[in-house]
Amino acid sequence: MRIRDQHALTFDDVLLVPRRSPVRSRRDVDTSTDLVRGIRMAIPIISANMDTVTESEMAITMARLGGLGVIHRFMTIERQVAEVLRVKRAENLVVEDPYRIAPTATVAEARRLMDEWGSGGLLVMDAEDNLLGILTTRDILFEDDETRPVAELMTPRERLVTAPPGTSLEEARKILHRAKVEKLPLVDENGRVHGLITAKDIVKRRQYPQATKDEKGRLRVGAAIGVKRGERERAEALIRAGADILVLDIAHGHSDNALDMLKWLRDTYGEDVRIMAGNVATAEGVRDLAEAGADAVKVGVGPGSICITRIVTGFGVPQLSAVIECSEAAREYGVPIVADGGIRTSGDLTKALAAGAQSVMIGSLFAGTRESPGRIVQRQGRRYKVTRGMASLGATMSRQDSAEIDIEQVVPEGVEAMVPYRGSVVDIVRQLVGGLRSGLSYAGAYTIPELQANAEFVPITLAGMQESKPHDVEVL
Ligand code: XMP
């Protein structure tokens, strides 16, 4: 047995000491950061792979804002793949493989596909990829005969505006504007479809200039995997679907199980996949994962709002100290650190980054938003959404293989809880990033690396923390 001679600290134990600042406007600072080795993002925020936080809607919004969403893994492989595809198809420069339907398909079939894909327009194409027409929701809105073939209802090829393959986005914008249409199929001289440019994609590019995108202009997305049997198959399917980052996520990431999976991923896919691995809370944990091939390491054992790991097992390291120790080790390997769990405010975000993390992962703070999965519940006139630890009893029971679960054997390491409904995640992210920008200016820093270089933490007492919050007033 040994005992460390220093107390470990967390966010509320410290404040950052203000410094003389050359920053004249919060607009001048740069919040961009490393997401994983080789991929950057405009804001240092990732939504957590929890089933009450991130599915495609959250992931699309986070990527548009310049962060990232990680699709959770507590669903079938097929469903997780579909969620990844939704994100990858949400925006494109050119849609290479547009949603299509055969001319002989029925109205009922068209409705089903539009619903399944969440698309309001399908290209009607024959088996040789020839364009025959376009079918939109408007064409079938009032059609009562569900058995009619779509060929009878589509706008036929001769009435469509098309352009040749290789048309630039600027040219496409002009054509769409002139013709007052929303879809521009790219068709060669033989009538074959090579892609599709949509008005929506062009507008989105202007609306979200900071979005986290791949080289084809598609939003980036992460997808979580575990270490149990079947997870190799999951990894394979997610890579094929185009997930940008696999997040190998288990509660005790510094374990042989996690290291074996990581090595298998590296041996199998080489440098073609980007892998974020965790969770750990020590320098040794970071070193082992980095040496096994992690492109980013997630730090946090027990700081999460819904975590009871520390209570149930007695293990964990207060998050600020864990991030400091882990990021020092990670620097030797050039591997970014993600501070995962316990972020409640923009002050916590700034402290986590100042401590050495390149980004933070956020769960429950985002669980109460419109973009998170699950319904709004009413209680005593107030609106809430549910959040739950992925090792809570409820989450464990609703897993695929719950038939095999013996309830007596379940030892939950998370709780289920309610969080106030807070509208769109866009507003929360805006507040967080606004607070971070102010924080950078207090540190005399224009960038996150400068914040880290300039950071000086001062430990505070409970009285100091009380003084930091509104006190001796009735907050309205
Ligand atoms: P916040 O504080 O943002 O934390 O809600 C989110 C992170 O908490 C972790 N997590 C858990 N930890 N038991 C735990 O000990 C659980 O059941 C559990 N579920 C999630 C996870 O790292 C997440 O990103």
Task: Kindly describe this structure.
- With 476 residues, the protein is of the alpha/beta class.
- It folds into two domains: 11-91 and 211-466, TIM Barrel (Alpha-Beta Barrel), CATH 3.20.20; 100-165 and 178-193, Roll (CBS-domain), CATH 3.10.580.10.
- 34% of the residues lie in helices and 19% in strands.
- The protein has 17 helices and 21 strands.
- It has helices at residues 56-65, 77-90, 107-117, 137-140, 169-179, 199-207, 231-241, 256-269, 283-291, 309-313, 319-333, 346-354, 364-367, 393-397, 425-442, 448-454, 462-468; strands at residues 14-16, 33-36, 39-41, 45-47, 68-71, 100-101, 121-125, 131-136, 155-156, 183-187, 193-198, 222-225, 245-249, 274-280, 296-299, 337-340, 359-362, 377-379, 382-388, 416-420, 457-459.
- The strands form six sheets. An eight-stranded parallel barrel has the order 4-5-12-13-14-15-16-17, surrounded by seven helices. A four-stranded mixed sheet has the order 6-7-8-9.
- The chain starts with 13 loop residues before the first strand and ends in an 8-residue tail after the last helix.
- The model has no long low-confidence stretch (mean pLDDT 94).
- The structure holds xanthosine-5'-monophosphate.
- Xanthosine-5'-monophosphate (XMP) binds at residues 48, 50, 251, 279, 300, 302, 304-307, 309, 340-343, 361-365, 389-392, 413-414.
Observed structural traits:
476 residues; oxidoreductase; TIM Barrel; four-stranded mixed β-sheet; CBS domain; CBS-domain; alpha/beta; Aldolase_TIM; EC 1.1.1.205
Can you summarize this structure?
Helix content is 34%, strand content 19%. The radius of gyration is 25 Å and the shape is globular.
